[in-house]
Amino acid sequence: MNLLLALGLSIGILAGLWAQVSSALALVTWVGFVAWASFYAAGGKKEGLLKAVASNLSGVLWGFVISLLLAAFGGMPLALGIAIAIGCFIMVIQANFKYLSFIPGAFAGCASYFGTGGDWKGAVIALIAGAVLGYLSEVIGVALSNLHKKTTDTVFCKYFLQKVAS
């Protein structure tokens, strides 16, 4: 089976399950999809999983810090711009660390924090779940693709050996 077809099947099935389960458990469904996309954008595999989770969660942290800075600056003119500038600077600079090097993941995590209205617990749970689902979808997709390939190769080898023997 073509890898994209296999990935499409595994992602489609897991995405449908995620939508049902997350809705039933009152989890933030869309944030899970943000993390799922971060997993693939970070390169997939275990490395992509680690980078997506670390960078997404750091973004939630920096979103929280931006909120604290905004509160500390009070009604000061330009408070929003200054707080965001500091948070964004840090999200880029942290890329010096291996597992925080996926800069878009930090911004996605920060946006998820603000998109949930500051529900950091909901954002964290959905970000972790989405990244794990991304990893599972890749593992299942690759396995389906390889399984089909092995089956096809075996059938072809048997056919070829029968033709050679006769």
Can you give a write-up of this model?
The chain is mainly alpha-helical and 166 residues long. It has one domain (3-165). Helix content is 83%, strand content 0%. It has six helices and no strands. The model has no long low-confidence stretch (mean pLDDT 93).
SSE order, as H and E? Answer: HHHHHH
Strand % is under 5%
Overall strand count: 0
Q: Main sheet, how many strands, which sense, barrel?
A: none
List the domain count as a whole number.
Answer: 1
Q: In whole angstroms, how far apart are the ends?
A: 30 Å
Helix fraction?
Answer: over 70%
Q: What is the averaged pLDDT score?
A: 93
- Shape descriptor: elongated
Work out the radius of gyration: 21 Å
SSE map:
Blueprint: H1 3-24, H2 29-41, H3 45-73, H4 79-93, H5 103-115, H6 120-165
Features:
166 residues; mainly alpha; 6 helices; elongated
Brief overview, please?
The protein is mostly helical and 166 residues long.
